[in-house]
Amino acid sequence: MTAAASTIRARARPGPGSRVWAGVRRYALTVFAGLAFAYLLVPIGVVVLFSFNDPAGRRNLTWQGFTLDNWMNPFAYPGLREAVELSLKIAALSTIFATVFGTLIALALVRYRFRGRSATSLLIFLPMATPEIVMGSSLLTLFLNYSFPLGFTTILIAHILFNISYVVITVRARLIGFDRHLEEAAMDLFANPWTTFFRVTLPLIAPGVIAAGLLGFALSVDDFVITYLVSGSETTFPLFVWGAARVAVPPQINVIGSAIFLVALALMLANVLWQRRRSLKGA
Amino acid sequence: MTHSITRRELLRRAAVGGAAVSLPSILAACGGEGIEGQTGAQPGTTSVTKELADELVFANWPFYIDVSDDEKTRPSLDQFTAETGVKVRYLEEVNDNEEWFGKYQAQLAQGDDIGRDIVVLTDWMAARMIRLGYVQKKDKSAIPNEENLVANLTSPGWDPQREFSLPWQSGITGIAYNEKRTGGPVTTIEQLLTDPKLKGRVTMLTEMPDTMGITMAATGGDPEKVTADAFDTAIDMIQQAVDSGQIRRFTGNDYVEDMLQENVWAGLAWSGDVVASIQPENPDIKFTVVDTGSHIWTDNMLIPLGGDVFTASTYMNYVYDPAVQAQIEAWVNYICPVEGTQEEIAKIDESLAENELIFPTDEMRSKTFIFDAEAADDPDYKEQFQAVIGA
Amino acid sequence: MDFLHRHRWLTPYLLLGPGLAWLAVFFVVPLFYLGYTSLQAGDILTGYTFKWAWENYSDAFTLYRPHFLRSLQYAGVATAIAFLISYPLSYWIAFRAGRWKNLFLLLVIAPFFVTYLIRTIAWKTILADQGPVVDFLRTVQLVSDDGRLLATTTAVVAGITYNYLPFMALPLYVSLEQIDHRLIEAAQDLYASRVQAFFRVTFPLSLPGVFAGTLLTFIPAAGDFINAELLGTPRQQMIGNVIQSKFKEIADYPQAAALSFVLMATILVAIVVYTRVIGTERATAG
């Protein structure tokens, strides 16, 4: 970082050496970016690498040898399958709820002027400005005070909650850049707001809604802090990892972690490509 | 007892009632009355059906039961399933007594089923679970093998008739050290907490009775009858070691990982871990009983509220068969509570029968103490200890 | 349908209804309960009752002051480092990466696709005392022979920085990417120096990204406890560690609630102050 800053400063006086400096500067910034990428990606490499490790015992601490066993039997470790299934179930359900709730809110915020609009925006913003541990602990106190049994339901409630704001933001961004005249034309044509919604509005905002859904799903699968506080006796995948981290992290955890990574990456790539195709067609 | 709870409950409802009125009806419908403490079902009211359930859910500590050589199955559990038809869902979810309790307390206090038929907890926590009515009585008629329980464990103060509990394993907390790294034995708490060579390479345990008991014994206190002075002296010593950076972490089972990675060179350790998990991977790591006093403890099987008593009792009976016990013992290497195991284990591996950490000698036992169960559960002590370990 | 046509003003409220109700019941109401619980007293075995127990708050400010300060400090340092790494990185992607922009952007957020805990555990492996990284640093004498990285403040701050860096880089990128290149060219013609052009034009135009990025990094960092737990020692425990242990391990709910409340208040105050400061800077910069 200092390297980049000093080269920028060095460029201040344009003189005979400026061409050289320009080269250094360009080079320095690129090298810096390269190092930053290495910093970001090395841990991921370690995670993936150790998913192929063949440790002697249950502890996946040092590199012992290459094996595909862990990938062939990702659920060989007892309890892991149940944890992954629970995570996926919670993520799917919470994503559906949050996407519906959030999309409706985004529609209201962009399309209508109404009393309480700024209060609504604040209410959407606040959960994102709240540290997870505060959100989790306030939910927990609610459940404790009502002796509400902790478990699947409470995890689901929490996940829907923290996903709503992200969905609103994502869908709203999409809605803002969208031509209302299309809808008005459709209204004249079909004269029915429902038909208009499903045949015009929804297809147009679909990429935003899908992106929001993917984001929500990813957030849900990854969430540890809030889930940890409200989970009771249920164990999601991150909670399972937490438990394992305090004993012995088996290579199967790296397998699931790598698999989640690869699937998410593939989906993101697909979304990027799809958006590009759409925009090309549109143009 | 029932009366006092009812009254306290009434007072609580009265105190909280006002605040609840203004809340949205959706919440009010659930009914709330502050955060509940002890209101488990009353012990002794268990009615037992003599029918085995399809599944037994068993919550235990990590590395605390036999596993096959390929690490994929647990032979003694499979054998139980073969004999009884009961499938076992075995959960390695207890890493720390307090933490496990904290996780389920809210549910148990409401008398909810936590979905576990057996849980294994250390003496003082077992005592608390029984006192709070969070556990059910065993079905003694289903456990004829209980007669194999070793004599010195038949009547603990907190469950004199063993109506609720049955020992799983005992163990000794002592010092483990990596001889190659430390350059020599580490045998005293003083060395552990002050030797500059070990700075930042020492772990102690988050279990208060282990860490505080052994430190108290080393500083002239009596861990079997804890006094505030002795506790203060010991905690000061630990605090200094934390402040100076001598102690790297306070851990549960995870110290094993730190020791094997050689991030940690010496620390308090549980005997069975060292024999079963550490030494096979790194023979340089030694274990020693502390001369000034090592902690001997027992983990107990309990049946939490909602658990299936008959199925759980049937399982308890199964593991009290010396042959089965020997099979488990040969893997976990703790101190076994079942009479006749030494003979059985000799058939598996002669050296295990002679291992002093599995079958301790009288001389070794004479250096051990049992931690004051009341002090282990004293909120003041716990708070002080928590403050020192950094939380 | 007729009903809706006649009462068009109702439509936005119907759209908002379910989502806002959820937020109200499970976000706003729980904050009330957090406050309510924070004034309870008692103990876990007998239950907690409400009795205006303000001592939970005085404890929060006395006993746990070091943890609060540490959290703010670590979060602040981590945010600063994340900024220093992210700004050149985002700048490079926005102005130099050409048509591969999206791909590089994807690489920046790639760590997010690895479960938070797993990537933190990976750091534990990387920084291990006998691992290759520390070995190398010892060889080049950047770490003393008996020194270490794991279980130090450095490791904790580095872990926090790593985990929240994409939160910083993403908004920075978005704001840099939107800058009209012609503006920068014009500025370069005007000021004749790239540095001046950068500080007079590019940087001020990217301020919304700086603002969003620092907030998105600082807020979760201040409440974090996983890095301190996995990569630190008792001396690096942050306020999040205390809160989680009071909730999950020793069940001292009122104290935990009071600490949460104070953390939330501190962060809100920090946001307001920060908004003011940045707000005026932005005004003067324009």
Structure description:
The complex is a heterotrimer of chains A (283), B (391) and C (286). Chain A has 283 residues and is mostly helical. Chain A has twelve helices and no strands. Chain A has helices at 2-10, 18-50, 69-72, 80-111, 117-125, 132-145, 152-176, 180-190, 193-222, 225-230, 237-245, 251-282. Chain A is globular. In chain A, 76% of the residues lie in helices and 0% in strands. By secondary structure, chain B is of the alpha/beta class. In chain B, helix 3 (75-84) links the parallel strand 1 and strand 2 (87-92). In chain B, helix 8 crosses helix 9 (228-243), helix 9 runs parallel beside helix 18 (379-388) and helix 13 (322-332) packs across helix 14 (341-348). Chain B is globular. Chain C is 76% helix and 3% strand. Chain C has helices at 2-6, 11-38, 55-62, 65-96, 101-109, 116-127, 132-139, 153-177, 181-191, 194-222, 226-231, 239-248, 253-285, and strands at 40-43, 47-50. In chain C, helix 4 (65-96) crosses helix 10 (194-222). The model of chain C has no long low-confidence stretch (mean pLDDT 86). Chains A and C meet through helix 1, helix 2, helix 4, helix 5 and helix 6 of A and helix 2, helix 4, helix 5, helix 6 and helix 8 of C.
Shape call of chain C: globular
**Helix coverage percent of residues of chain B?**
40-55%
Q: Radius of gyration of chain C over alpha carbons?
A: 24 Å
Shape of chain B: globular
Category from helices, strands and their pairing of chain B: alpha/beta
Low-pLDDT ranges of chain C? none
Q: Strand content of the residues of chain B, in percent?
A: 15-25%
Mean pLDDT of chain B: 85
